[in-house]
Write a sequence for this structure.
């Protein structure tokens, strides 16, 4: 057996038989996606504009590329610069009866999803969940008085007009086999990268014109009691590494750099709804995204490793200059 991840990112010669069989479906996907883009471009489908600058943070491939840390970074940066940002997201893994939903400290992952809860722990600007992005954006402007909207994972949501597009690229996996879904990991072709304003590369293999983003780990924080902290280098006993994110191997590789005694690695699908039986006994290390779903039943020896995005000042200057230009043009 093999996984789609193997087909997309590390295909061996015998995988190409399956990839070739999937190519007709990729062609169909391309035609449907192209037709949808043209429908918005020609006005057959409505694209809504709100009275705020819209920054899209997305990607052209599926899977975890590091969008959430960048969204947090942008919200903090814009707040420091005097803007009133708001975050708009789909809230994958959550399901609400009504939308939009404003995320607060009492929100549950089953309702709003795991990533919004993670963001709530780091930023204090409004965070709104709405699968209809234009509706959620309007709420952020009218009810929360936001002047900049950071739309998480909205690159292909053309029903919401945008002012700045940022693509987040996984520096290790890049574009995989460069094919569209389902034969490859791409939602849109490589050509789309030439139309965006910024490409932010998470990790190694940064190419010309891209901005490097690093993920800086902090101290371990106890899932059950967040007031307990521990240096990761202070862990000497065998540990279980656990991750239910888009690319679990990235988390496991990060832990490996600390020379930990990892007795097992447990991978779960992205946005997995954890339950107590998923957590083994002994010391467990997990991502912060997973921890927000485990805090109600985690045992005393469950810890998560927070990370924060780091980018060069050149990115900050370029982004803020772009916003200033947009403001000047709007005034004129």
């Amino acid at each position: 057996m093999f996984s789609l991840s193997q087909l997309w990112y590390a295909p061996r010669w015998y995988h190409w038989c399956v990839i070739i069989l999937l190519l007709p479906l990729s062609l169909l996907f391309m035609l449907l996606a192209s037709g949808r883009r043209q429908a918005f471009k020609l006005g057959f489908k409505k694209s809504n504009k709100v009275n705020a600058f819209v920054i899209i943070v997305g990607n052209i491939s599926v899977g975890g590329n590091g969008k959430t840390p960048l969204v947090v970074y942008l919200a903090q940066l814009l707040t420091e610069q005097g803007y009133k940002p708001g975050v708009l997201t789909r809230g994958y893994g959550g399901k609400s009866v009504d939308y939009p939903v404003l995320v607060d400290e009492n929100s549950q992952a089953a309702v709003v999803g795991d990533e919004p809860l993670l963001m709530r722990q780091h930023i204090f600007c409004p965070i709104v969940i709405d699968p209809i992005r234009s509706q959620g954006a309007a709420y952020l402007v009218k009810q929360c008085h936001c002047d900049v909207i950071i739309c998480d994972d909205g690159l292909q949501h053309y029903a919401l007009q945008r002012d700045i597009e940022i693509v987040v690229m996984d520096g290790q996996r890049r574009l995989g086999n460069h094919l569209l879904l389902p034969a490859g990991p791409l939602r849109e072709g490589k050509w789309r990268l030439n139309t965006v304003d910024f490409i932010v590369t998470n990790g190694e293999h940064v190419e010309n014109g891209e901005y490097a983003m690093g993920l800086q780990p902090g101290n371990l924080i106890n899932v059950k009691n967040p007031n307990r902290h521990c240096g990761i280098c202070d862990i000497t006993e065998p540990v279980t590494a656990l991750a239910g994110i888009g690319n679990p191997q990235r988390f496991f590789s990060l832990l490996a750099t600390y020379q930990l005694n990892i007795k097992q690695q447990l991978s779960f699908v992205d946005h997995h709804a954890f339950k107590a039986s998923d957590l083994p006994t002994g010391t467990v290390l997990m991502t912060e995204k997973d921890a927000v779903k485990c805090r109600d039943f985690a045992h005393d020896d469950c810890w998560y490793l927070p990370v924060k995005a780091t980018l060069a000042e050149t990115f900050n200057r370029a982004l803020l200059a772009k916003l200033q230009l947009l403001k000047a043009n709007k005034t004129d």
Observations:
- The chain has two domains: 41-214+310-331, 219-305.
